[in-house]
Each structure stands twice: as C-alpha cells, then as structure tokens.
Amino acid sequence: MSTPAVTVSLWRRVLLLALPVAVQMLLQSFLGMADVLMVGSLGAEAVAAVGMAAKLHFLMLVTMMGVATACAILVAQYCGAGNQAEGKRTLAMALVVGAVFMVPFTLAFALGGQWLGLINPDAAVVQLAVTFLLITAPVLLLTQLITIYEAALRALGNTTVPLLMGALGVLLNIGLNYVLIFGHFGFPALGVAGAAWGTLISRIVQLAATLLWLYGVKHDFALRLLDFIKALHWAPLKRFLWFALPLLVNHVVWAVGNTVYHIASGYAGTDALAVMGVMVPIESSFFALFVGLANAAAVLVGQTLGRGDMPGAWQLYRFFNRLTLVLVFSLAGALWLAKPWVLAAFDHVDAQTTLLLEQTIAVFCLGVWVKVLNMLRILGILRAGGDTHYCLVVDVIVMWVFGVPIYLAGVFWTDYSFALLYALTFTEDALKWLPIRWRVGRGVWVKNLTH
C-alpha cells in the first residue's frame, strides 16, 4: 500500500472516530464552563463554590475513565479480532465493576458537609458547594454508566450515538441552568442549587436516551440479566480486573493528587481559589479535547493490534503524535490571543484576581504541550497494548515523590505568586516525559490482548 493511500485512510478514520470523540469531550467539559459563567453574576463565592464542585466532578470523571478505558481497549481488540461475544461480556463486567466502585463516592458527595470544610477555609464557599454536591451526588453513578456505554460504542466505531446523546445532555443542561438559576418561565430562582438540578436532570435524560436507543434497535449492547450473571463468572472477571485495576488505581492516584493541588491552592488565598475556579473549565476544555483524541487513538490502535497488524499500530502512533503536536500548539496560541475576551468574561472579579488570572493563563499556554503529549502516549498508546502497570508505577512515583511535595512546599513555605505556584504543577509532567517517551520507543505496548 502506498504512503498517500495510507495517509488518506488515516485522516478518514480520524474524522469519523477521533474528531467526534474530541468534540463530545469538549462539549462535556463546556458544562463546567457554562456553570461557572452562568453563576458569575451571583458573586465571587458562587464562582468559587461551583468551580470547586466542577473540579471535583471532573476529577471523578477522570477516575470513571479508568473502567471505561479498560472496557474500550478490550472491546476494540475483540472487535478487531471479530469476537463479539467477548466484547459484550466485557461491557457487562465493566458496568458491574464501575457501578460498585462509584457507590462510595456517591455517598461521599452526598455527605459533603462532613469534609468540604477540611479542604476549603471559606465557610460561605463551602456551604454553597455542599448544596451543589448533595444534589448532584447521583450524577456520579449515572455518569459512570454513561461513560462505559459510550466507550464501548466508540470501540466498535460508533461515534455518532455517543456524540448525539452527549450533545443532548449539554444542551438540556444549559437550558435548565438558564431556567433554574435565574428563575425564568415561572420557576423559582434557585441560584447555585439551580445549576445542580440542571446537571442531575440532564444526566438522567442522557442515560435514559442511550438505553432507549440500544434496546430500541436491539443492539448487541442491549444487555439482559443473563449477560450480567455471566459477567460475574470468576475466570473472565479476574482477567478483566487484572487489566482494569491498574487503570482504575492510576486514575484514582491522579485524581487524588490533583485534589491535593486544588486543596493547597485554597490556602494560597481567596484570589487564588477564584483564579482556579476560572482555570478549571479552561483546563477541562483543553484536556477533555486531548483525552478524547487519546481515547480515539487507543481505540484505533487497539483494533489494529487485535487484527495482528503491528506495523499499522506503529504508523498510528506516529500519526497521532504529529496531529497532537499541531493541535496543542495551535490551540495554546489561540487561547493566548483570546486572553482579552476570557478576562472580559470574568470582569466581575477584582483587579488583583484579574492580573493573577492573566498570568496563570500565560503559564498554561507555555506548558500545556508537555502534559498533552504525555497524555497521548499514556492513554492512547501504552495502554492500548496493555502496558498499564508501567504507566501506574511512573505516575505514582513522579506525582507523589516529586510533583505534589514540590507544590506543597511552594504553597506553605514560600511567598510565590499564584502564577508561579501554578507553574510548579507542570513539574511532574516534565519529569515524566523521558520515561514515557523511552517506553513508547521500546515497543512494549505492541501486543495482541485477545490471545
């Protein structure tokens, strides 16, 4: 096959799979931005509270992706190998494991009043955040099921249904925010609580619509009770857990580490917390876009490895690596140029906070490329071939031996401005660069997991 033909084929697959995934992840991350923007007129406390709650929900979403990613990688390889029965059983196992894992976190969000005060010293912010988390606690379980179904469908190459259902959820959420936050069409003005109710209702509708479609078209993923009983058989469940647990633990470790960053930022001052409230949706928009691209790479690489096409897997890696570089530099440049509009959108905050926000955006634009390339190589390449244990070890060592201690030292033992403190959060990705790049180059990930 000639190189031009391969290039055209790769671009077609990116447009049909990777781009819809990236767009959907971007839409999902936009919800955090919409919540923060729409409560902006309620004051700095509301912005900080919803920003903190959005951060916690985003971190939980990252954790959920551990099970969803394991499901997607295995379903993709089984799809490439033509083994639909094992793909179906993998989905059932993922739904069971994901739901069981998410129950304690759902309870923790419902009991936010017991622990939120420990991570934020501002009583007014905490009270608003407690209200938001109490209402949205069931969203964790709903979103876990949604992410698993979406991941499994994408692994089969179906990106249209997850994108449409995701768009439905986003549009409904924004519409409900408008109605419930400000009290339009005869509804009471609920403020922060209105944003929470909008989030909960939209997730219920999104999951219900997905299930109605699956069972309406009699899809293979329209699971029956017998499918879930088979999913509890120990031999296949043990194999799934062996593959999924490192991913799950890895995502938990990453989420806890980032929670520590956010908690420490609260002790850097109210201005710093307000800046983080704005940066959370900006970060989420960037990272969700590239998580989507990395997940698409994982699906394509997984299907290729399942077919036994090892040279094709290498070609996909090189393609996604170049594409990611072009996109991250282009989007970082666009954000840099758009700084005046971003600052104008939050003109209700004071001058000191505005200056800190401008400096923090500049740091983000300069350093985000390192984070994004590591993300692609870990999420999209190494894990697609089952190299999950190495990724776990690297993440744990770099984050907890270097990244978190350095940031905590900066917050509690220096008088650095928040922009400099924010720059310290890039330390771990700088240290992770070489071991991840070396591992990809060794080709340890080029494995068929269906045998």
Describe the structure.
Helix 9 (234-266) runs parallel beside helix 14 (388-413), helix 10 packs parallel to helix 13 and helix 13 (351-382) packs parallel to helix 15 (418-424). It is built from 16 helices and no strands. It has helices at residues 3-38, 44-81, 84-110, 116-119, 123-155, 160-182, 192-216, 225-231, 234-266, 270-306, 310-337, 339-345, 351-382, 388-413, 418-424, 427-442. By secondary structure, it is mainly alpha-helical. The longest helix is centred in the first third of the chain and has 38 residues, at 44-81.
Outline:
The protein is mainly alpha-helical and 451 residues long. The chain has helices at residues 3-38, 44-81, 84-110, 116-119, 123-155, 160-182, 192-216, 225-231, 234-266, 270-306, 310-337, 339-345, 351-382, 388-413, 418-424, 427-442.
Number of helical segments with 4 or more residues: 16
The radius of gyration over CA amounts to: 21 Å
Strand content: under 5%
Question: Major β-sheet, in short?
Answer: none
Number of strands: 0
Mean pLDDT across all residues, rounded? 85
> Which spans of ≥5 residues are poorly predicted at pLDDT below 50?
1-5
- The backbone outline, from C-alpha atoms, is globular
Our measurement of the CA-to-CA distance between the termini, rounded to an integer number of angstroms, reads 27 Å
Order of helices and strands: HHHHHHHHHHHHHHHH
Query: What class do helices, strands and sheet pairing give?
Result: mainly alpha
How much helix is in the residues? over 70%
